[in-house]
Design a protein that fits this description.
Layout: H1 13-26, E1 32-33, H2 45-54, H3 68-82, E2 91-94, H4 96-108, E3 114-119, H5 124-131, E4 135-140, H6 151-160, E5 164-170, H7 182-192, E6 199-203, H8 219-222, E7 230-235, E8 248-251, H9 254-267, H10 273-284, H11 288-309, E9 314-315, E10 324-325, E11 328-329, H12 335-344, E12 347-348, E13 350-351, E14 361-364, H13 369-386
Parallel strand pairs: 1-12, 3-4, 3-5, 5-6, 6-7
Antiparallel strand pairs: 2-8, 7-8, 9-11, 10-14, 13-14
Helix pairs in contact: 2-10, 3-10, 4-5, 4-9, 6-7, 11-13
Bound molecules: pyridoxal-5'-phosphate (PLP).
Pyridoxal-5'-phosphate is lined by residues 37, 96-98, 122, 170, 174, 203, 205, 235, 237, 243, 248.
Length: 387
């Protein structure tokens, strides 16, 4: 079980930049905010309807691992969408994917353990790992590799890691938008089979936010023999635009799920009963809106790419999923200073160093197209002046 740590996690740099942008706006400055990874859509109407109806019921405590009917709805979705079969006691529901990941690390990590985290990474992983007394082992990737960790890289990192406990895989990635193909996952699985003590966190939170018709590949489906070592994490925040409802889940081996549930039961007991009932409706309801919204995100992505790629100072890959762009700014070393300067130019972004990618900026396109286009123009204009 975990050890206590005195590590003081810094505030999320994403939230810091978003707050700075909000403060400047409140002071009357015209700021285009491209910081937050929060869909600008509403939750689907049928979900809101289900929530209104649920208010007629008595909203008492639920089991710490969630309502049985919600666990059933999650299992149904995973069977239909990803061909994965989980039993009831292999699912734990929590307050967002974030809490599930935190619970899993809390339940399994101790001082001296290492967690392999490919960069660019979601900014919370390394801090969560440190809060559990363990150390992140960062595996940098490049745009030439499509921001995906290769089997060779993983193999050499595992060979030299002292006490590796987890590997984090997140696809589509925040902030890279990168997806893994089945073949790439098979190659990673081949390496992982030689390290039976390493668990794999498969953070699939953006699985439904994709701009390709290729089927979604996830390690648990590609390498079922590893399923006893995989914690698949997902939730309603991104695809269903239900960030504030705080519902996420983890699916994996029984013992790990029991340990996650124990941690859950000792902190906030369960996530909101109302939110759980709304999530059942979300998972069981019509799904046309997912395709429609992805088409809107895709158009925004392409509009932003057109502006950014016309600037010779920027090098930017085309993300296949999630809603972020990660341009590299040629010749820039201090991306934090750059992000602060850009605030003066009226656009708020997040410095790439928050994601292990210094020299980059993250721009979220989960915002209206006109806003996004204006933000990209301001960025390009400001870089032109800075040259
Ligand atoms: N994992 C990744 C990669 C994310 O980007 C986020 C949210 O930004 C989360 C997990 C957490 O999502 P939730 O709102 O379900 O806690």
């Amino acid at each position: 079980m975990h050890s206590n740590s005195n590590y003081q996690a810094p505030q999320s740099p994403i939230l810091l930049m978003a707050r700075r942008a909000a403060e400047l706006r409140a002071a009357g400055q015209d700021i285009v905010d491209l910081t937050l990874g929060e869909p600008d859509f509403d939750a689907p109407e049928y979900v809101l309807e289900a929530a209104r109806n649920a208010l007629q019921e008595r909203l008492g405590y639920t089991p710490a691992n969630g309502l049985p009917a919600l666990r059933l709805a999650i299992r149904r979705r995973l069977e239909i969408d990803r061909g994965l079969h989980y039993l009831d006691d292999q699912i734990a529901v929590g307050c967002g994917a974030k809490q599930i990941i935190f619970n899993a690390f809390t339940a399994t990590l101790q001082a001296g353990d290492g967690v392999l985290v490919p960069a660019p990474y979601w900014a919370s992983y390394p801090d969560m790992i440190r809060m559990c007394g363990a150390s992140p082992i960062i595996l940098p990737t490049t745009s030439a590799e499509g921001f995906r960790v290769t089997a060779e890289h993983l193999s050499s990192a595992l060979r030299s890691a002292k006490s590796p406990r987890w590997l984090v895989l997140n696809a589509p990635g925040n902030p890279s938008g990168a997806l893994y193909s089945e073949r790439e996952l098979e190659a990673l699985a081949l390496v992982l089979r030689d390290y039976p003590g390493v668990m794999i966190l498969s953070d699939d939170i953006y699985a439904e936010v994709r701009y390709t018709d290729k089927p979604y590949a996830t390690l648990a489906a590609v390498a079922p023999d590893l399923s006893e070592r995989i914690l698949l994490v997902d939730g309603v925040s991104k695809a269903y635009a239900m960030t504030g409802w705080r519902v996420g889940w983890g699916c994996g081996p029984r013992e790990l799920i029991a340990a996650i549930t124990s941690v859950q039961s000792q902190n906030c007991t369960q996530t909101s009963t109302l939110s759980q009932l709304a999530t059942i409706a979300a998972l069981d309801g019509p799904r046309d809106f997912l395709r429609e919204r992805n088409e809107i995100y895709r158009q925004r992505r392409d509009a932003a790419l057109e502006i950014l790629r016309a600037c010779t100072l920027l090098e930017v890959s085309c993300p296949e999923g999630a809603f972020y762009l990660l341009p590299r700014i040629r010749g820039i070393k201090d991306d934090q200073a750059l992000a602060l300067d850009l605030l003066k130019a009226g656009v708020a972004t997040v410095p790439g160093s928050a994601f292990g990618m210094s020299g980059h900026l993250r721009l979220s396109f989960a915002t209206e197209q006109a806003n996004l286009v204006e933000g990209c123009r301001r960025l390009v204009t400001a870089l032109g002046y800075a040259q």
